[in-house]
Amino acid sequence: MRSSPRWADCRSCCGRTGHRPHSCGPPRSPSTHRRSSTATARMPATGRRCATRPPRESTSSSNASASSPTMRRALLLVGVLLLAACGGEELPEQAASPATESVSPSPSESAPDSDPQSEPLTVLLVGLDEDTGSQRADVILLMRADAEREHSSIMSIHRDTWVTIPGHGEGKVNAAYAFGGDELLADTVGSIYSTTVDHTVTLDFDAFVAVSEILGPITVDTADGPVELVGGEALDFVRERAALPGGDFDRVRRQQAYLAGVADALRSAGPGQRAEVMRAVAEHVTVDGRRGAAAHLLLLDLLARVEGSETTFFSSPHGGTGWSHDGQSIVLPGDIDSLADAYEGDTLDEWLETVGAETLDSRPVE
């Protein structure tokens, strides 16, 4: 049985105050799925989400992968850079050792229990903003590859989404990283969406600058026309939210649009540039808690194990914005239950069609 967070009002759903958001709606049936007691503010999977205070934002965009395995892996690498893609299954222990140059598996008389490629893969991608002097999870994305590795999805999770953090009560989802690092954040996200996070990849924002300087300028289509970004301009573009009409909702769309721009730049980049991008990433990435050479090996293993596939960008359903009981401005969860069912049943493609998710191109990026 879920506990319900307390909010001061629910202006985003009905304009009334003094009651829990969506307590004005019909009662919900209980669910047996294991997930966080996020909030009772959930919407039916109709594709029309309650978001009257900022603009409605749930988005998706499909980008076809390039034809060659080398290019596909390069595009996956860009995804890691922007915390918007990754891959791999169970990693061999040898990959954790910087001194290991090759791996020769030990003979075994028994066959493995199952083929890792036959299971969906889920990777949590976290962008860290260290500008304030302390690490903060500023970008949170959940990458999912289906069992056949034919399709992957990348879901943006708004950092201010109000959830239950295991062992810490209710709070914004990005607070989980401050409380317990990537492990607690992975546990929190996994419980919300009824999925097991197989790997975590964290990256600091300096990588945004490095990639744009190597490949730049990066061209991004916006409401005011194409803009070219390089260096600090790229970082400012993906971090800005105060000046945007939709605040963090528009900022998420900017991040997705920037990723699309980098992918376009990689398609025309030569092998030398792609290798330089890889070296730049290795300096800023942590994979499953490992840094340096160990992280580099793990990253290479992840990239090598997942072939390129059509990738869909979308955002976790939300119910607009509201206020917590202690006065914080928060993002209210939307129809988390149906999405969690899709993760649990490996039916994200069907879920995206059911809710009628918008494409990235459906409206201009601010």
UniProtKB/TrEMBL annotation:
The UniProt similarity line reads:
Belongs to the LytR/CpsA/Psr (LCP) family.
Spans annotated as Disordered = 15-69, 92-119
Q: Where is the composition biased (Low complexity)?
A: 58-69
Q: Which InterPro entries match?
A: LytR/CpsA/Psr_CW_biosynth (IPR050922), LytR_CpsA_psr (IPR004474)
Q: Which Pfam families match?
A: LytR_cpsA_psr (PF03816)
Query: What name appears for this protein in its UniProt entry?
Result: Cell envelope-related transcriptional attenuator domain-containing protein
Taxonomic placement: Bacteria, Bacillati, Actinomycetota, Actinomycetes, Actinomycetales
Domain Cell envelope-related transcriptional attenuator, which positions?
136-266
